[in-house]
Automatic annotation (TrEMBL):
Residues 134-153 are annotated as: Disordered. This is Protein-glutamate methylesterase/protein-glutamine glutaminase. Phosphorylated by CheA. Phosphorylation of the N-terminal regulatory domain activates the methylesterase activity. The modification 4-aspartylphosphate is found at D54. The lineage of its organism: Bacteria, Pseudomonadati, Pseudomonadota, Gammaproteobacteria, Chromatiales.
């Protein structure tokens, strides 16, 4: 059984989350706390496996509590966030501090989609219970513009693309990769499992903290070197060739692997439109989305990379890619950016050694 402590200042939300999680045969809600001070005492007494944590609470906000928790007693945390612009920014702060994942806050009208919401939060609690959680240190993170390589990319052609997919733990993993990209790198297309309302905040943060120009992708937008395009929450992102150029195409089609955006949708379109001109990486995430798409890319001649187990928060998606032979390389996160750049220059493994 996965033992969960629910932390929220709203009695209604505490009850809703408790009922949803208790409906699962493998999850037990061992307590419900009304604020961080109450949560602190219950953590000591109950020793839960996973915490669900409200972002905004009285007496002590969720971010302050999370920072203290990850320094003193690191444990898997799933944030419960309001679907607002400020909620998106705060949620990204929480993920940077070590929260495993997040869900949007349910409301009193959640009954119309109760089963879907229950599946989502239960799956994220399960993934969190298996996640690798690290202790937060006080060492400051250097801005991405300092980390990005100043050297020229040295790309042999102008039609190269880089494709990246991720889910659980992916916002920080993507940031790690983008921070190491030089400002003349090939255009980058990204599918991160993220709900509508949060992807814009994520794109804005990547734009502010890397040497690249980062957008929440728009339909028909031209893909340019030195730019990255993040699939909007609630939309699939595809790549389409338009003469000598690539452009973004957005679709609100059916969920694929229970996701929209889906990494498989992006990767398959890149395999069809760009093929061997692509380098692609599948990063940390729960489930299997992206593994078959990465295999399609490899079969089309692209160089493909899966994040390794030790550096992944959850080794679901990249682990499945490794299992089915979709990855040319399985690498730790800190080596993936350089490998993508090497492949984008058209070099082989032997040439880059």
């Amino acid at each position: 059984m996965i033992r969960v402590l629910v932390v929220d200042d709203s009695a209604l939300i505490r009850r809703l989350l408790t009922e949803m999680l208790e409906s699962q045969p493998d999850i037990e809600v061992v307590g419900a706390a009304r604020d961080p001070y109450d949560a602190r005492e219950q953590i000591k007494a109950l020793d839960p496996d996973v915490l669900t944590l409200d972002v905004e609470m009285p007496r002590m906000d969720g971010i302050t509590f999370l920072r203290n928790l990850m320094r003193l007693r690191p444990m898997p945390v799933v944030m419960v966030s309001s679907l607002t612009e400020s909620g998106g920014d705060i949620t990204l702060d929480a993920l940077a501090l070590g929260a495993v994942d997040f869900v949007t806050k349910p409301d009193a009208d959640v009954a119309h989609s109760l089963a879907e919401y229950t599946d989502e939060i239960a799956d994220k609690v399960r993934a969190a219970s298996r996640a690798r959680v690290q202790k937060l240190t006080d060492q400051p993170r250097r801005p991405g513009r300092q980390l990005a390589s100043a050297r020229s990319g040295g790309f042999r052609t102008t039609d190269r693309l880089i494709a990246i997919g991720a889910s659980t733990g992916g916002t920080e993993a993507i940031r790690d990769v983008l921070e190491q990209m030089p400002p003349d790198c090939p255009g980058i297309v990204i599918a991160q499992h993220i709900p509508g309302g949060f992807s814009a905040a994520f794109a804005r943060r990547m734009d502010e903290n890397t040497a690249l120009t980062v957008f929440e992708a728009r339909d028909g937008q031209r893909i340019l070197p030195g730019h990255a395009y993040i699939a909007p929450g609630g939309y699939h992102l595809k790549v389409e060739r338009d003469g000598a150029r690539y452009i973004c195409r957005l679709s609100s089609g059916a969920l694929v692997n229970r996701h929209r955006p889906s990494v498989d949708v992006l990767f398959r379109s890149v395999a069809e439109q760009a093929g061997k001109s692509t380098a692609a990486a599948l990063l940390t995430g729960m489930g299997k989305d992206g593994a078959e798409g990465l295999l399609a890319l490899r079969e089309a001649g692209a160089w493909t990379v899966a994040q390794d187990e030790d550096s992944s928060v959850v080794w679901g998606m990249p682990g499945e890619a490794a299992r089915i032979g979709a990855a040319c390389d399985v690498l730790p996160l800190d080596r993936i950016a350089e490998r993508l750049l090497t492949a984008a220059r058209g070099k082989t493994r032997e040439e880059s050694a």
